[in-house]
């Protein structure tokens, strides 16, 4: 409550003045108590807040540790890192709030109490002292006797001086009281207003921070909903599998064999058989350790034509038999133990014991089968070595193929990282990257790969070099590009614009901004000069059909010995087609050729030869580079904004994908498909990429397009679909692929047939064709194409 003391009453020193002073003094005393209490509460709140920030920071560090632990799961790592960064910002905002609170409440109110109220107290002491002196002077003046003139005069002078001093100090005291009453309102409200503004800034910062995070949270929520659906489906599948295995286990005869599930045949891992066996010691005593069976019980496996065992999973396998081709296996009935068999090599023998008679028979059969397989594989390798050493086969191999054969057997990580620049992350330079963007052809560290995922698959498709399986054509695509090539394109203007490339230790926000500017906004791509039209370029033109004429006479050179191993799987079903093809090949070569299928009825379509691609539009640059099989030029055209499905109206509305087919490059087709090319766009004659690949006899491309969903039922202007074209051209490989794809499509449309063995055969055959198209294209070439036309 505001109390004002009148200066006039001060001079009178009336009872009203004294009562007003008493009221003011009591009010100031209570105000001091309230302010002291508020300052103490503020100090406690600040200390508690700092403890909260410390605990919150520890919690945030725990989230970051969990994110580092989840480095193999990009979604979890990215989300937890983003959330921990947000929490760190909130901790910073809390710290700022507590600092503002300390300045506005604690410091400001303490200053008011220590300075202003202390001045009031000092003024009060002086006033009380002079007031007492005045009372004494009044009493002394009243008591002096009239006849004592000297004492009367002295008492009068003292009273006059005392009254003068009292009025001066009383007026100062009243001024101090009125100033304090006025100032305390401003000080209290000023400190509280500053405190509330600190809260306003805190909540505004938090709102802005979470507004930026909200879209990501919504997207993550949608992903979690889908994950919940997938988890429920997986749970049902696992419950069904559990029930199936439980029923199967219930039907097994456990009395004869209780370890049926401990071994399997896994050709994909090279493991023919595996399981526990007892092993007799190989010392001079030939003993079995009965007290500690685990000392002689080992996990045996047959793999890579060797018999090995290990005690623990992490232990390096101990090789028992180096080469199964040099050993024999036999039953052992002349010892006291049951279910024993012996593996004998030229240098040593190994006595082993199974858990049952069935398992012993299975192990003996597995060893015998592995011995036979080892002989066959050795023979195949010798035959391949002879073919490689022959002049005819050796002349077909280009330099790039030789390099890839040297790399054969290495992992995808090793093959991709040996490309120049790929040993470090393309965007931050961190060594030993384990992730890749398959449509860009670059390697990435795990943090940058998470940022690439957030860009969307239309900008970057991320795949693990160690966890995912790699198709051969995709692996070749990665080997054709690399970090050095892509950075020369996407960072051409980096030094000009003065942007600093992130380092491995840079903040994630800095990396994210750089990657978005690099690939989405393409700020560092060198601007392409103005495009020049075909008429203005003044270049010569060549008939488009000349390219196809290279293939027109090649059908006569078809030989049955060039057929790949993959086509042998189903060749028996197409024996009639093959026989008719052999009988009528010369006739078909003269009547139905690739050239005749491409040439129009009227004048031949003509197209411009390739002028300087730097003067062309990005779409035309991509179109030309696709024919020339130059993936770096194709990547540069896409960086300049080329539409991947660009249509050349001057050449029958052909697309870059069709040009890649004409150029004969499997890798160029794969690159365009990975960057969003439509496999079913057709030209003016109604022919899509599958039509063109069939006409030109490019079996590897036909296999690729069928895997990527090409419509083989589409017909051209002559009413021919790819299958009829392949039959007329007597191309047995392509006929086989098209018929298999059609059969597989029909199986998928039939209820209850999808996933049956027929579908597995389809997958195996297409996998074999893909391997040959990438690693041994000469086996699939129906025409004698030059080395430059091989993918």
SSE inventory with pairings:
Layout: H1 7-12, H2 15-69, H3 74-143, H4 149-251, E1 271-279, E2 297-303, E3 306-310, E4 318-321, E5 328-332, E6 340-344, E7 349-353, H5 357-389, H6 391-394, H7 399-406, H8 412-417, E8 435-437, E9 442-444, H9 446-455, E10 462-464, H10 472-480, H11 483-490, H12 494-497, H13 508-520, H14 534-537, E11 541-543, H15 545-552, H16 565-568, H17 575-591, H18 594-598, E12 606-608, H19 618-628, H20 631-639, H21 656-663, H22 666-674, H23 689-696, H24 699-707, H25 722-728, H26 732-749, H27 757-775
Antiparallel strand pairs: 1-2, 1-7, 2-3, 3-4, 5-6, 6-7, 8-9, 8-10, 11-12
* Number of domains as seen in the coordinates: 4
Determine the number of helices (DSSP H or I, runs of at least 4 residues). 27
Most strands sheet:
7 strands, antiparallel
What global shape is seen?
elongated
Please name the CATH architecture of the largest domain: Alpha Horseshoe
Could you name the CATH homologous superfamily of the largest domain? Ankyrin repeat-containing domain
Strand content: 5-15%
How many E-type strands? 12
The end-to-end span amounts to 93 Å
The level of helicity is 55-70%
CATH secondary-structure class of the largest domain: Mainly Alpha
Uncertain segments of ≥5 residues (pLDDT<50)?
253-266, 389-409, 531-614, 751-758, 782-791
Give the mean pLDDT: 76
């Amino acid at each position: 409550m505001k109390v004002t003391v009148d200066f006039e009453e001060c001079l009178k020193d009336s009872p009203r003045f004294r009562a007003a002073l008493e009221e003011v003094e009591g009010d100031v005393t209570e105000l001091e108590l309230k302010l002291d209490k508020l300052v103490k509460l503020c100090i406690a709140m600040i200390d508690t807040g700092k403890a909260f920030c410390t605990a919150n920071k520890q919690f945030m560090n725990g989230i970051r540790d969990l994110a580092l632990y989840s480095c193999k799961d990009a979604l979890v790592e990215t989300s937890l890192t983003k959330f921990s960064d947000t929490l760190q910002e909130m901790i910073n905002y809390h710290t700022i709030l507590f600092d503002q609170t300390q300045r506005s409440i604690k410091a400001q109110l303490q200053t008011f109490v220590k300075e202003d109220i202390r001045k009031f107290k000092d003024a009060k002491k002086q006033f009380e002292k002079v007031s007492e002196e005045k009372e004494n002077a009044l009493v002394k003046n009243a008591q002096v006797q009239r006849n004592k003139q000297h004492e009367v005069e002295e008492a009068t002078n003292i009273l006059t001086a005392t009254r003068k001093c009292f009025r001066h100090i009383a007026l100062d005291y009243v001024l101090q009281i009125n100033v304090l009453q006025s100032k305390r309102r401003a000080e209290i409200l000023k400190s509280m207003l500053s405190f509330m503004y600190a809260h306003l800034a805190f909540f505004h910062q938090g709102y802005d921070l979470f507004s930026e995070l909200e879209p990501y949270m919504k997207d993550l929520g949608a992903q979690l909903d889908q994950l919940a659906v997938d988890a429920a489906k997986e749970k049902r599948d696992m419950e069904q599998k559990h029930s199936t295995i439980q029923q199967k286990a219930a039907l097994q005869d456990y009395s004869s064999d209780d370890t049926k599930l401990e071994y399997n045949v896994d050709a994909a891992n090279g493991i023919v058989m595996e399981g526990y066996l007892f092993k007799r010691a190989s010392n001079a005593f030939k003993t079995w350790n009965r007290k500690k069976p685990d000392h002689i019980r080992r996990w045996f496996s047959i793999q890579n034509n060797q018999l090995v065992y290990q005690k623990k999973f992490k232990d390096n396998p101990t090789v028992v038999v180096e080469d199964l081709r040099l050993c024999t296996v036999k039953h052992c009935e002349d010892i006291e133990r049951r279910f024993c068999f012996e593996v004998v090599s030229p240098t040593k023998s190994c006595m082993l014991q199974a858990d049952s008679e069935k398992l012993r028979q299975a192990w003996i059969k597995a060893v015998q089968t592995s011995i036979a397989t080892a002989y066959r594989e050795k023979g195949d390798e010798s035959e391949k070595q002879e073919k490689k050493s022959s002049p005819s086969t050796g002349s077909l191999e280009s330099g790039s193929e030789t390099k890839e054969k040297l790399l054969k057997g290495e992992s995808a990580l090793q093959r991709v990282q040996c490309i120049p620049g790929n040993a470090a992350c393309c965007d931050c330079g961190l060594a030993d990257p384990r992730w890749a963007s398959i449509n860009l052809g670059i390697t990435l560290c795990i943090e940058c790969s998470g940022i690439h995922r957030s860009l969307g698959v239309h900008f970057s498709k991320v795949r693990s070099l160690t966890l995912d399986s790699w198709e051969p054509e995709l692996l070749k695509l990665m080997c054709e590009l690399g970090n050095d090539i892509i950075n020369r394109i996407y960072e051409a203007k980096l030094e000009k614009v003065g942007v600093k490339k992130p380092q491995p230790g840079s903040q994630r926000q800095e990396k994210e901004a750089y990657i978005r500017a690099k690939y989405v906004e393409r700020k560092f791509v060198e601007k392409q000069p103005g495009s020049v039209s075909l008429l203005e370029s003044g270049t010569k033109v060549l008939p488009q059909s000349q390219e196809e004429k290279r293939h027109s006479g090649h059908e006569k050179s078809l030989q049955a010995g060039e057929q790949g191993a993959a086509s042998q799987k189903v060749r028996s079903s197409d024996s009639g087609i093959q026989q008719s093809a052999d009988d009528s090949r010369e006739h078909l070569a003269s009547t139905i050729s690739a050239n005749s299928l491409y040439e129009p009825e009227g004048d031949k379509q003509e197209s411009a030869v390739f002028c300087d691609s730097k003067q062309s539009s990005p779409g035309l640059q991509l179109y030309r580079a696709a024919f020339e099989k130059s993936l770096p030029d194709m990547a540069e055209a896409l960086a300049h904004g080329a539409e991947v499905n660009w249509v050349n109206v001057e050449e029958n509305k052909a697309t870059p994908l069709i040009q890649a087919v004409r150029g004969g490059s499997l890798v160029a087709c794969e690159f365009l498909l990975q960057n969003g090319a439509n496999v079913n766009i057709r030209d003016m004659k109604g022919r899509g990429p599958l039509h063109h690949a069939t006409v030109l006899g490019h079996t590897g491309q036909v296999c690729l397009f069928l895997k990527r969903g090409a419509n083989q039922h589409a017909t051209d202007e002559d009413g021919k679909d790819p299958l009829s074209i392949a039959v007329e051209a007597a191309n047995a490989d392509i006929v086989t692929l098209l018929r298999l794809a059609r059969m597989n499509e029909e199986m998928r449309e039939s209820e209850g047939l999808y996933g049956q063995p027929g579908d597995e055969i389809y997958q195996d055959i297409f996998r074999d064709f893909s391997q040959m198209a990438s690693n041994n294209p000469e086996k699939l070439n129906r025409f004698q194409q030059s080395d430059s036309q091989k993918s």
